[in-house]
Design goal:
Elements (H helix, E strand, L loop, with lengths): L22 H11 L16 H4 L3 H9 E4 L9 E6 L2 E8 L4 E4 L7 E4 L7 E7 L4
Antiparallel strand pairs: 1-6, 2-3, 2-6, 3-4, 4-5
């Protein structure tokens, strides 16, 4: 398991960094801390409801920095994406083969079992940038 304990219990905040996180800032921060060199975003403003304006935005960003993998290939530091109402708009980072860390609106950052989100599973990604 990767060491991400310092993030557990941090509050959710849209575009938060450091002491609070949304799902994207948590993913980027955790991966950068473990040797990846990912930018903080795609250069465009990230509004609270970005997914309504560009439903494929998250996936387009992941395609730039990683490759899609099968759920059977998951390992620590892989990114998992979840779709709600048909739109891929939530992400987490695997900490082992069955648990992920994520930041969810209205909740503190937590580690949960992946199986609790599998009905929303969209895709899994292995980052390949400057590792």
């Amino acid at each position: 398991m990767i060491d991400i304990s310092k993030y557990i219990g941090k509050p959710y905040q849209h575009r938060g960094e450091g002491q609070s996180f949304d799902c994207l800032s948590l993913v980027i921060t955790a991966l950068n801390e473990h040797g990846y060199n990912l930018p903080p975003g795609d250069g465009e403003m990230i509004r609270k409801e970005w997914y309504r304006e560009d439903p494929e935005r998250l996936i387009k960003g992941l395609k730039q920095y990683g490759k899609r993998i099968s759920v059977d290939e998951l390992q620590p530091l892989d990114v998992v994406v979840f779709s709600f109402r048909g739109i891929p708009r939530h992400a987490g980072v695997m900490v082992d083969r069955s648990h992920m860390i994520h930041a969810r609106q209205g909740k503190d950052v937590a580690i949960i079992r992946l199986k609790h989100y599998m009905r929303f599973f969209h895709s899994a990604w292995r980052m390949e940038v400057n590792r």
